Records
---
Amino acid sequence: DIQMTQSPSSLSASVGDRVTITCRASQSISSYLNWYQQKPGKAPKLLIYAASSLQSGVPSRFSGSGSGTDFTLTISSLQPEDFATYYCQQSYSTLLFTFGPGTKVDIK
Amino acid sequence: EVQLVQSGAEVKKPGESLKISCKGSGYSFTSYWIGWVRQMPGKGLEWMGIIYPGDSDTRYSPSFQGQVTISADKSISTAYLQWSSLKASDTAMYYCARLVLRDNSDAFDIWGQGTMVTVSS
């Protein structure tokens, strides 16, 4: 099975900060990597697919990069509505998915 | 509007059976895989399994194989997740989600609102 790790597990940041979250796969997954945002009490929301493509309706301050085993999600200027938990998810294994453990972004 | 609507919260006792549902609308239900995701209280997302309602092809995470059953009734655009004998450790929020292919990467683009299952004696 492909294992996913994320770092940091949590971070505190201020509005306007640039935030970077890292996701690492236990083996190469090419660009088969998605990012989700989950706010408390809500279902997850797809932000980025195929490592770097922005899902329709997602603000352009969100961006993704990486390939192989190392990936990053960047929020260029953190907004109040961005305080949430972020999960990566690999889709390299056909119909056998894995989520990362999550990174919680809260207010400094 | 494309949406997945899940059944309501459940409170059950250990050993009881349960079947929760996820109804799709606004798109061709038989043309997209539907996955199930568990989120235990205060924890992260765990992929459980997935079904293609068009032909009921089903795959399970090794962690959930044999623990749950995923099914679908395409005539009513509904997918199901069921347990034959619940345990306290099944207490969690359960989400269904639609799988789409984007730039050769499968992603869950539409999510249900979640069904909270509480198992307690």
---
Amino acid sequence: QVQLQESGPGLVKPSETLSLTCTVSGDSISSFYWSWIRQPPGKGLEWIGHFFYSGSTKYNPSLKSRVTISADMAKNQFSLKLNSVTAADTAVYYCARDRGGYSSSWYDCWGRGTLVTVSS
Amino acid sequence: QSVLTQPPSASGTPGQRVTISCSGSSSNIESNYIYWYQHLPGTAPKLLIYTNNQRPSGVPDRFSGSKSGTSASLAISGLRSEDEADYYCAAWDDRLSGVVFGGGTKLTVL
């Protein structure tokens, strides 16, 4: 059974960098695409970006200048870095597996999500 | 303002059939697959429908998806109290070169 688990600080100061890690068990991150998705309080889901083990990444155009998704293949983890955060980045952050490929939104496995609050 | 447009709310009584719409454009719904997710507060979203109209194993056949042109819909028949949740549509957008979600529809079972 595939399981994903997000981890990282729950509180980040404005202008600093949000860093989260998704640990995957039951599957290798060298298969499929792996994504980050977030949900601000009271709002809908927003795609942040995805990566493929080959090193290929794609980001939401609205966040592209601030986002980096990378992976540690040895640890079977992938990570999200979002810099220069503001209160608008406060959200529950999910990692998910996309089994559909590059131009897909087929998220069949999700982490439980982690709330990150941006506040001083 | 979401790229995919969903009604903010929908409702029905137990046993009824409800439909949730998702409206997009030629760069997303018309040219790519649509996916539907069920989201209960405090839990991870759950895949309900993939590639327009396919159900993952374990999803009841009360849930069905369809697509026509730039619109898609999710139908739930035999409505049950446990269906009360938020529902999201999603698709790849060729113009934005990324995934877009609908704003979500909150389904209330009266």
